[in-house]
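Moderator note: this is an archived Q&A kept for reference. The question asked for a predicted structure of one protein chain; the sequence and the answer are reproduced below.
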Amino acid sequence: MIGLALEGGGVKGSYQAGVYQAFLECGIKIDGVCGTSIGAVNAALIASGKGAELANIWRQINVGEVLGISPNLIDILNKKVYNFKTLKLLLKEGLSLTINKGLELQGLRKILDTYLDVNKLLKSKMDFGLVTVKLKNLKPLYLYKEDMNKDKIKDYILASSFLPIFKKEKLIDNNYYIDGGFYDNGPVNMLLNKGYKKVYLVKIHGIGLNKPYKKDADVIVIESKRSLGLTLDINKNRVIENIKMGYYDALRILKNYDGEKYVFKPKDEKYYKYLNRKVSKKEYERVKHFFNSKNYKETTIRATEYIMEQAKINYYSIYKIKKIIKLLQKKYQKDHFIYNYLAKLKYFMI
């Protein structure tokens, strides 16, 4: 069985929507999905059959409204216009937050009410689980859908997502709960303990703790080497960017492509060693040390990606290393040791 574990991390969870899009396109069937916090929200939607729509759901969500922030303030913050009007609104929002003792949960409830069909979730053959922590005695709870009262499933998802910024509210059985990330932000062990043989862990580096899993477990990590923004980032462009990032990062893993920040068609170490045949040992070692890389392949790819980023080349494509090196050598020249290194790579006769 193949499982999917989704970390918590607020708006960074939009990255997981792009990841799952790649899973669908690659035809990888997931038998069970567990999540913490926003990972639990995404996991519930996937398990209920909404996985194909997840990216569009994220694109439609207004994060600021979900958090209960006024539309005027959202507009100003997104435009990054800072003046007396902004200050006045910030003070007003801060005062409201103080009076209410936290952000309201209505926005997140509305998302679940709009998009999550509990009956479909329960009937689904896909396992669904989450992590939350009961505030009384700080007891962690690992729960699968069969462990939850049908009428309380949405409340358990809210409990898994309950950060201290939210207004204190008794969600289940007259008890308070806090975000599952305070105990286990990436519930890999939930799936391994249920007998799953392979687990994909989608890391978004939210605030929380990660429990170790057995070193010999077949756990494949998908994560970004670039920033996913803030946990509570209200800029819609950040959501769109994260979805694309998740899609290409997942493709790299699922199709065994090369690269870290970009995606390249795969080539072996021998290929990259041949590319470096005209580079002196001293030059190669300098670049290798700069990137703390292990071999010709890592060194060449990291140097290529470094210049691609400097040149602001689009991240979202699948490149052929030979073609992109040729482009960089022709168009981007600079008196810098990494540029000089790349200029000496020879792709002829390959």
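Archived answer notes: The chain has a mean pLDDT of 89.
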